[in-house]
Every structure is written in structure tokens, then in C-alpha cells.
Design brief:
The protein is an alpha/beta fold and 400 residues long. The chain has 18 helices and eleven strands.
């Protein structure tokens, strides 16, 4: 069994809520007719255990295996629910460590690391026709205070990692916090991808390695099974190849919660979690409402992505790029990773960081009201509703 430090907490006064008689729950629990996941914590009333027997009696009639696979366990639910009060006091200012080259630096969860509030997305820096342009963008970002580098083993067939590796030569590697991701679900596949990433990035150690695209309910089971990818991650950490371990996903907050739950069952706690956080996520299958409080409570570094929806949110004509970045920065994120494919877009990201100030509740509410109608069905968050963004679904061989 893979283990890592994981504090044990109990909350004896509450149980999983049955939402069959409510209208605001937004995400149905698979295989549990009429039940919904807890989503908007501020509207809930946590009921004493003696009032919740009916919900558990009905769920106990289901197949136990299906129930375990489909329903968030008591511990997972309670961590998310009680964490809402923690989130209320978690502000960007709490995470702020210092300012470097005009770029705010924030704490990365419980790791003690300081990273730039804006992270350089790895996918976009592999798209330039000339790799010299890619290298210029990366080094210009670092020179102006962006220290968090995002990448992935599969981005642009490895081109993104190769170009970043070249950009980090000549002393630049020592200036950044380097993250990349692997797709393997088996120990063998993940080990091979970690080693390939090290070679492409021209480094002997990656600061943060994340399990990529946790988008299926079975992904956590494969990863934590005997011979699963988590064994490769732990071995790589013990060997000094990586320092910290996290996971990413863009599809559904329920899958993230299940990943956290399966990890907890194996006494493992991730250092970071990456997920979509934007002005429309708050209205539809919300990572902000359902996952973010849990991460804050467990002191897991929060990496925001898809602040502009890749970039479909901008197509709604309801918000500007700067407003999108400011909204994500206003959440208790350690870094907001954004795609930067030109020096012009780099300047935009730097401007957002320089001009960001904690937003008032009224300002946040105005932004959310402005985007509510457009966001209601997820039409501008296609990564949640469409398979075109699911690289591992289109390339299942990456999983191993």
C-alpha cells in the first residue's frame, strides 16, 4: 500500500445529505436516483445524523461496489462541507509571500515553496513556427518574474518540453519552479514518461510532477492499484527525480473528489491539484464550489487553469481577458496557469498580475451575475462537456 502523511480527521455530527427535495443541487450522483452532490455550501443546512437515516437506508440497498464507485464517502463529503468555512477566510493575501520583479509570489500549499501568481502554460509555447520564438517567450516571462513553468509529457508530441528544456539552459533552470505531467496509469508507463520528460527538459530533477487528465471515475483506482502510476511517482520522488506530486483534470469536480478520496484511503496526500477556475465554472459543475474548499482545508496547493476557457469564455463577450485573470487570481490559488503564445499575450498576463487587487464581494457578484446566463449550460466550458480536449481518450495508449 502506498502511503504518505495524511492527518486523520473525524466530524461525527454530520452525514451525507440527500438532495431529493432541493432544487439547487447541480450535479447528480451516478447510480443514486434522486440524489445530488453538495455544491453550494453557503446555501446548505447540515443536518444532524439522526435525521439522515432515510438517505443512507436507501443508498445501502444499492450494490455496495457501485455505491463505493459512485458516491462520495462520508469523509470526503464532510471534508468538503466543513472546509467551506476555511475557504471563507482563505484570500489571495493569505497566500502572498513576496513580490519579485513586480510579480506576486504565493505559497504553494504546505510545501513552503514560493511560486509566481501567474504560471506559464506549457501547451502554447510549443505552437510557434520557430522554436527561437518559444525560447524568447519563456525567457522573457522568467526575466519579468514568472517562475512557475507548466508542461506535460504529451504536449505537442513532446515539442513543448523540448523547447522549454532549451529555454531553461544557461542558468534559467535555477530561476524557476518546474512542473510537468505524465499520462501513464501504470507504474511502467508513468516511469517511462517521467524519464523522457527529464531528458527533454534537460534537468535531473523536476520540482512538481502531476498525474495528467484525471477525468474518468476509474482513473483513481488504476493509479492506486498494485503496479499503478502512484508507485512510479513515489519511486521517482525517493530517487530525487521529482520533489512534489499532484494531479490535474478538467472534466468534473466529482472525479477530483474521488481522486482525493481514494488517495486518502491509501493514506496519501497530494501536494497540488490543478483544475479549471474561472468566472463561468462558478455556475456549472463547479470546481470552485465543490473541490476548492477541500484543497484549502488540507493545505494542498491550488493550481488554477482555463481562466478564459481555452478561450471560449472570451467568445461569450461577457468578460475581458484581464477580468478573467483577476477573477482566478482572487481565489486562493497558488498559481493561475495561462496560455502564452506571444509576447503580446505575455504582456497581458503581466498586466493582470501588476494591476490585481483583492476584489470586493460586490465586484465578484457583479462578474458572476454578468456571466450567469452564458455559463448555465457549460457551452463556454467545452472541456467539461466535449471530448475534444481529452487527449488521453483520443490516445488511450498513453495510459499504459
Amino acid at each position: 500500500m502506498v502511503t504518505d502523511e495524511m492527518p486523520h480527521r473525524e466530524y461525527p455530527n454530520f452525514e451525507l445529505l440527500d438532495f431529493r427535495n432541493t432544487s439547487w443541487g447541480e450535479h447528480p450522483i451516478p447510480n443514486v436516483p434522486g440524489c445530488r452532490l453538495f455544491s453550494k455550501h453557503e446555501k446548505s443546512q447540515l443536518l444532524p445524523r439522526q435525521n439522515m437515516r432515510t438517505a443512507f437506508d436507501k443508498m445501502s440497498q444499492l450494490n455496495p461496489t457501485s455505491q463505493l464507485d459512485a458516491v462520495m464517502s462520508r469523509r470526503s463529503f464532510l471534508k468538503s462541507a466543513t472546509a467551506a468555512t476555511v475557504l471563507a477566510s482563505a484570500t489571495p493575501q493569505v497566500l502572498l509571500a513576496e513580490t519579485k520583479e513586480g510579480m506576486p509570489q504565493r505559497l504553494l500549499g504546505r510545501t513552503g515553496e514560493k511560486v509566481s501568481a501567474i504560471g506559464l502554460g506549457g501547451f502554447h509555447i510549443g505552437k510557434q513556427a520557430d522554436e527561437v520564438e518559444s525560447v524568447t517567450i519563456i525567457r522573457s516571462a522568467i526575466d519579468q518574474g514568472i517562475t512557475f513553468m507548466d508542461n506535460c509529457w504529451d504536449y505537442n508530441g513532446g515539442t513543448s518540453e523540448i523547447r522549454m528544456g532549451k529555454a531553461l539552459c544557461n542558468g534559467y533552470r535555477q530561476k524557476v519552479f518546474l512542473m510537468t505531467k505524465c499520462d501513464g496509469r501504470t507504474k511502467a508507463a508513468a516511469t517511462r514518461q517521467i524519464d523522457e520528460s527529464l531528458k527533454r527538459l534537460q534537468t535531473d530533477r523536476i520540482d512538481l510532477m502531476q498525474l495528467h487528465e484525471i477525468i474518468r471515475l476509474e482513473d483513481p483506482d488504476r493509479i492506486f492499484a498494485a503496479g499503478g502510476a502512484i508507485e512510479a511517482m513515489v519511486d521517482a520522488r525517493q530517487a530525487g527525480k521529482i520533489r512534489y506530486i499532484g494531479f490535474t483534470g478538467h472534466k468534473d469536480p466529482f472525479v477530483h473528489l474521488r481522486m482525493l478520496e481514494v488517495a486518502a484511503a491509501h493514506k496519501f496526500r497530494f501536494d497540488t491539484v490543478q483544475m479549471p477556475l474561472n468566472v463561468m465554472d462558478a455556475h456549472f459543475r463547479s470546481f470552485e464550489h465543490q473541490v476548492l474548499p477541500r484543497l484549502i482545508a488540507d493545505e494542498i496547493g491550488v493550481l488554477g487553469m482555463k481562466s478564459m476557457g481555452d478561450p471560449f469564455i472570451l467568445g461569450s463577450k461577457t468578460v475581458t481577458p484581464i477580468e478573467c485573470l483577476h477573477y482566478a487570481l482572487n481565489l486562493p490559488t497558488s498559481a493561475v496557469i495561462t496560455g502564452i503564445d506571444s509576447l503580446k499575450i505575455l504582456d497581458q498576463a503581466l498586466e493582470a498580475a501588476r494591476t490585481f487587487k483583492p476584489m470586493s464581494k460586490e465586484t465578484v457578484n457583479r462578474l458572476l451575475a454578468r456571466t450567469a446566463t452564458a455559463a448555465a449550460t457549460g457551452r463556454y466550458e467545452l472541456f467539461k462537456t466535449d471530448s475534444r480536449f481529452d487527449g488521453t481518450a483520443q490516445n488511450p495508449q498513453w495510459l499504459g
